[in-house]
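One record is set out below.
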Amino acid sequence: MMRDPVRRIISHYRYVKRHPNHYMHDAIAKRGMTLSEYASQENFIELDNGQVRQLAGLIEPIPLSQEDFDMARKKIFDAYDLIGTLDNVDAFLMRLGSLLRCDMPAASVRRNRSPQDQADIDPQALAVIRSRNIWDQQLYDEIRQRNEASDEVVRSGSGHRFRAQLALNLRWALWQLS
């Protein structure tokens, strides 16, 4: 389940600001860090192509290469039988239900939702976020385009090897929506 990279970073910033127990809270709240400053932080690697890093298994704070992106792309398209985006989770759940031959609940009501209007975001902050998440954006856009072109969630792989991982991923996706 991929998430829009810009929305993910904005949401992450707002989440950290609201939760004093988060390990990054002091960096934002006590120092009065802006979204642009936060997104520029080099020591928080999840703010720099965090989704591609996770897929490629890279935790070092080093710049990503085309090879790293290709590794993440190969992993997501080869290792997962079903790929969706968080902004189209209902279609993902319908396709998942079809694959598992069961009814899946709609997830269109989200309880953990912060405002996502980018119109009120400082243009400099948006530029910083976009510049640090080019690979995430490229992978996200490809998945969205494939989903829109096929009118269903991207499916790859053989369909029989993912059931255990699917349960974990589904729990994570539903947790994200709660």
The radius of gyration is 17 Å.
